């Protein structure tokens, strides 16, 4: 029964990887189209090719592609070793919230919402720090065990 479950799990992960690959390909294509359209549009009187709003829009799309790619790699890692990598998920969370902060129009947001996003970034960063610290500690203890065996 366990072997059947593992085979089913592997099939689902492969399907997720396939669709995530399609999503990344489409998103990258759309990013290129948006970038080209922004560049070839007539230059306004200001002389700026993109302008601030165009840059924010493109960066937001760029971060979407980056987040999708990180999720793809996380799924691929899980498929390879069967271990959930929490620090990678926290890193993806930090990138996703950072993307939100970059494209956010602060003039239209409630102060409490902005404070909550700041706290979210802070707590995700603290969680990432401790996950990384635990991972390094485990890695160091494995190395010291291996050295003492010699």
From TrEMBL:
Listed GO CC annotations: plasma membrane
Localization of this protein: Cell membrane
Keyword Cell membrane applies: yes
Keywords: Cell membrane, Membrane, Transmembrane, Transmembrane helix
One Pfam family named in its UniProt record: PsiE
This protein's record includes keyword Nucleotidyltransferase: no
Topology within the bilayer: Multi-pass membrane protein
Stretches that traverse the bilayer: 12-36, 48-72, 84-106, 112-131
Taxonomic superkingdom: Bacteria
Annotated InterPro entries: P_starv_induced_PsiE-like (IPR020948)
Official protein name in the record: Phosphate-starvation-inducible PsiE family protein
């Amino acid at each position: 029964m366990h072997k059947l479950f593992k085979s089913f799990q592997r099939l689902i992960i492969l399907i997720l990887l396939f669709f995530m690959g399609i999503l990344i390909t489409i998103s990258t294509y759309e990013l290129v189209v948006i970038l080209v359209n922004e560049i070839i549009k007539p230059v306004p009187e200001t002389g700026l090719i993109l302008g601030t709003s165009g840059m924010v829009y493109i960066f937001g799309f760029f971060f979407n592609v980056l987040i999708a790619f990180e999720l793809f790699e996380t799924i691929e890692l899980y498929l390879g070793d069967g271990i959930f990598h929490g620090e990678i998920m926290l890193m993806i969370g930090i990138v996703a919230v950072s993307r939100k902060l970059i494209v956010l129009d602060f003039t239209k947001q409630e102060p409490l919402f902005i404070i909550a996003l700041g706290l979210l970034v802070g707590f995700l960063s603290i969680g990432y720090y401790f996950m990384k610290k635990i991972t390094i500690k485990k890695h160091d203890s494995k190395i010291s065990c291996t050295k003492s065996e010699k």
